[in-house]
Amino acid sequence: MSVPLSASASVSAAHVTALRRFNRYFTRRIGVLDDHYLGQDRPLGEARLLYEIGSGASLRELRTRLGLDAGYLSRMVRALEGQGLVRVTVHPADSRLRLAELTPAGRDELAEQNRRADGLAEGLLRGLTEAQRGRLAEAVAVTERLLRLAAVTVHPVGPASPDARACLAAYAAELDGRFPEGYAVSDLVPPERIAVFLVAYEEERAVGCGALCAPGADTAEVRHLWVHPRARGLGLGRRLLTELEHTAAARGHRTVRLDTHVALKEAAALYRTSGYTEIPPYGDNPHAGHWFEKPLPH
Hints:
Shape: globular
Strand order of the largest sheet: 4-5-6-7-8-10-9
Strand content: 15-25%
Largest sheet: 7 strands, mixed
C-alpha cells in the first residue's frame, strides 16, 4: 500500500485542467495522434519501442521501462519482427528471458527516425529567440523532474525485506566512502528497532528509503534517509522525509528527531529548510555531529 500524503497535498481542479490542456496541445503538436508518426509507416508506440530496444533489451525490461502489458508488448514486437526490423532471441544465460535487438534494417529505420525527430524539434524551436529557447529548455527540465517525482511511489516494506536490505547496503557503502572514520553495515539500526521502513520506487526500482524508529511514545526518530544517485535532484529526499513525518504523526507521535554527520552538509540543509531546529546531542550514534528536532501537527 502506498503511503498517502497529508490532506494539504490534495490536487486542485485548476492544476488538473492545466496539465490536461498541456497534454492535449503537446501530443497534437508533435504528431502523436497520427498513425504515421514522423511520416513513417508506424504509430508512435512502435516508433518508441524501436528507440527503447536500441542496442538490445529483454522483453521483461521493456515491459517495466514502458509500463506496457505483456500481451500488448508482444503484439508490437511481432509487428516489428514481421517488418524485418527486430529479431527476438533467447538470453544465453537465462532461457526464461527473451532478448529483442534491432536488425540492420531496424538500425537504419531508427537512424531515420532520430533524424526526423531532430528536425521536428528544430522546427518547433526555430520560431523562438535564443533567450526563449533557453527558457523553454529550463522549463522542460523542471517539468521532467517534477513528473519523475510525481511518478515515484512510496511503500512501507519489512526492514529485512530484499529491497530494504539493498537500499541499506547502498546507503552504508556510500557513507563508508564519505565519512573519514568509515561506516560499516553493523552501524545500521537493527531491523527489530525499526517501526516503519519506507522504500521509494521509480519504474519498479528501489531508489530511496527511510526508517522510522519509536524510542518513546511521544517521540519518533528518522534514520537512514537515502536517495539513489540516479534519483537525486528530484526532491525525493524531502518527499521521503515528509512521508516519514506524516507516518509518525499518524502513529500518535508529537515530535520527530534525527541526526546527521558533519560531512553531510546537504542533509543538514534539507532538515533546516524542512522546519527542523538544532538541539543538544542525544542517542548513541557515533557518527552524529548535528542533532535536529521538529514538532508534529496533531
